[in-house]
Each structure stands twice: as C-alpha cells, then as structure tokens.
C-alpha cells in the first residue's frame, strides 16, 4: 500500500500543493502554506450507498416559529447580531489584539446575564482574577456572569455540557488546545479543530457560543478563513488605535443582514454605545475648509454621514505619495485616473492624502463623488458648500451613476442640519422635503458646477 503523505494547504485560498512553498501558486499569497496530516483511509476508497443511514427529508414550508432571539439591551450589539442572539448559534468576533474584544464581550455577557440569560465567560488569556478586576472597573460585578479560566477544549466542553448555559464566550480561539490534535495552540490545525468542536457543540446543545479570534498581521484570523465559514455569524471589531471610536461590523450573518455596524466609544469605564454615529463622525468639523466633503452613506440598514478629508500638496518624490486611510485605495486611484483622463485635471507631481474622519471605514462605491469632491476641493484650495452632502458612483467614463437608498441618505443629512445635496442626475428621489438638490451628469459637470470651471 502506498504510504500516505501529508498535503500542504494554502490557508488563504484553500489550494493544495504537493510540497511546501513560500508562495502559493494559486493565489499568490506569501507564507500561507501549511502542512496537514494525511487523512486515514480504509481499504475502500469510495463510500458505498448501503452503509449509511437515510436522513429524513422535509419540505420548505415550516410550522416552526422563527428562532426566539434574546436581547442584551445593548442596542448596538443586538442590531449587529441581526436583532438579537439566536440560541445555538456560533458567532466569531475578530479584531486586532488590544482593540477591545474582551471588553466588548465581557460587557455583552454581563448585559445578556442581566437580561435573564445564563452566561459563561471562559478566558484562555487571563486568569479569572484579572477578568474580575476588569469587571470591577467596568461596573459589572452585580451581573450574574460566571467566569472560568481554561485552555483545554475537552475541559471547556465538559463544563459547558454540565452547565448548559444560554451563552458561552470563549476568549480566544488561538489559546485553545484540543488534545486530540497534535499541533501547537494557535496553529491552523488547532484553531480549525477547536472551532469545529465548539460549533458542533453549539448546534447540538442549543448553547449560543461566541468565539473570539485575534486577527494576524495580514488581516486574517489565525487559522485564517477556516473559522469564518464554520460559524453562523462573523463580526469584526475595528477602529484606529489612538482613536476612541470602535466599530463592530457584521461581515456574514445567517440570521440577519450583513454589513450592519454598531458604533462604540472606548472610555475609561469601558465601551459606551454611540446611538447617533453621524453626529459623532462630524463632530470635529469646524469652519469650512478645502479638502473636506460630507458623504451621506449607508451602513447595513442605517444611514451614516462621514467626512472625507483630502490633502493635496506638491511632491518631492519621483512617484508621489497616495496615502489612503479608511477608503479603498484602488477606488481612490481609479477616481484620480478618471479626473485626469476625463476632466484634464492632473495629479502628477502631487502627494495625495485621503482619510475618513473618526477612524471610520467606508467601502461603498456611493462614496466616489465625495472622494472626488474632497480631492478637487483640496487641489483647487476651495471649500465645498458646507451645508451640502454628496453621494454617487463614478464610472470610468466619468459619468455619475445613481445609488441605492437615496431617501434614507437625505433624511439623515437633513436631520443633521444639511440643506443641500449633490447627487447623480439619474437619481430618483421621492419626497425631498425642503432639501436643495444639485444634479450632476458627470465629473466635468461637477467641476463646472461646484468649482466654477471645467
Ligand atoms: P481588550 O478588551 O483587552 O482588547 P482585546 O481583547 O481585543 O485584545 O482591550 C484592551 C484595551 O482597551 C486596552 O488597551 C485598554 C483599553 N480599555 C479602556 O480604554 N477602557 C476600559 O475600560 C478597558 C477595560 C480597556
Ligand atoms: Mg482580549
């Protein structure tokens, strides 16, 4: 019989290779290939149809009511979960080390416990005394959360099986050690095995499990991607270090809309909910300055206004700087290229810095017009009308395309005191309610309309 050999799998794209390499041929990622133990196989290669057990099949119509959801009372958390916690669901919360995951989940566990759920918080990173100290600082000591400190997965599962809580927090998956897998804690094999065991347990027992995962340097949870597809819900906790704002974003949710965000502020006494993020993200705006554009965006089901800031300065470098924070840099390069090619406005020899105020990240193509507005305003050294919001997608021809949910964007803008909107010509909007609207067909028209040239 042929000796079974290990396979080598890319943790980024899942491609398998015969031998280890520094770079994956399939996706081009570096240092993502890891060795996997061979699968043990019996003499027969294929599964016979006779040996299994028939699974009962059923129709699509259901008499079962939708799963009851539990609410923590933290509105920002409940919304990102899709409207509350579903029993037996598995949730992954990822984020950079030190961003505040443990703080968020301790506060979340305490809130659920206060709401009547039995909640268990198991830390593999800190001793119970340390977690207790933090709870004291956060003013949570009266909440009936039960703490445990353990890294052995078998012990954790035994505990959960005995206690049968409604909610269990496991902080973090990288510290777990499954003794049936021969690999170091934090390795792909361990993380995968531990997550698999926890998810299976959640489904079987009805215990909702929240797994914390640290994001590694390359932006993926160690044991990358392997955990994401196993769980029902993937949340990322993000924010800029040195900024107090934190955003909890759902990137996958089997029980609700993805791309929903919850906004928090890190204070001396833990995370505080931010009910009106638009007001917060715009709070640092002072006098109208060149390079500032207010984008009326949509995050999940909620409109959020953000300020796009640009600085354009002569460069001393052969290839000028393009520094982009909080926006897709590829998108920014495209917009610069469109401005150059379609409007004849060169950016060669100029350093460009772009940023979204408050540490927010904006991924919507609808932000294109605000990005172009900020860039042009900075370049022309002329402020945009301070009472105006912008939105619209820019095509490669320079034409402006309408975007979704214009009414919601405008309503939010009006609520925050904006009286003007600059938007695509083809945009259908019903019930403008006193908002002044400037309709723009393409970027050349925008330059002419707003900067009086073009
Ligand atoms: P933590 O929740 O330990 O992060 P993670 O679990 O994601 O690694 O948060 C650590 C940071 O949060 C730490 O730098 C201090 C800060 N912090 C506050 O500012 N206020 C607080 O009340 C707490 C508990 C933490
Ligand atoms: Mg932590």
TrEMBL record:
Q: Which amino acid positions bind ATP, per UniProt?
A: 95-102
CDD domains assigned to the protein according to its UniProt record, in alphabetical order:
RadA_SMS_N
Report one GO cellular component.
Answer: cytosol
**InterPro entries recorded:** AAA+_ATPase, DNA_repair_RadA, P-loop_NTPase, RecA_ATP-bd, Ribosomal_Su5_D2-typ_SF, Ribsml_uS5_D2-typ_fold_subgr, Rubredoxin_2
Gene Ontology biological-process entries: recombinational repair
Q: Does the keyword Secreted apply?
A: no
The sequence motif named RadA KNRFG motif is recorded at 252-256
Pfam families from the xrefs?
A: AAA_25, ChlI, Zn_ribbon_LapB
Q: Where is the RecA family profile domain?
A: 66-215
Region feature (Lon-protease-like) = 351-454
Which UniProt keywords are given for this protein, alphabetically ordered? ATP-binding, DNA damage, DNA repair, DNA-binding, Hydrolase, Metal-binding, Nucleotide-binding, Stress response, Zinc, Zinc-finger
The membrane spanning regions, by residue number, are none
What are the protein's GO molecular function terms? ATP binding; ATP-dependent DNA damage sensor activity; damaged DNA binding; hydrolase activity; zinc ion binding
**Hey, which family's this protein in?**
Belongs to the RecA family. RadA subfamily.
Q: What does this protein do?
A: Plays a role in repairing double-strand DNA breaks, probably involving stabilizing or processing branched DNA or blocked replication forks. DNA-dependent ATPase involved in processing of recombination intermediates, plays a role in repairing DNA breaks. Stimulates the branch migration of RecA-mediated strand transfer reactions, allowing the 3' invading strand to extend heteroduplex DNA faster. Binds ssDNA in the presence of ADP but not other nucleotides, has ATPase activity that is stimulated by ssDNA and various branched DNA structures, but inhibited by SSB. Does not have RecA's homology-searching function.
Q: What is known of its domains?
A: The middle region has homology to RecA with ATPase motifs including the RadA KNRFG motif, while the C-terminus is homologous to Lon protease.
Its name, as the record gives it, is: DNA repair protein RadA
State the organism of origin. Paracoccus methylarcula
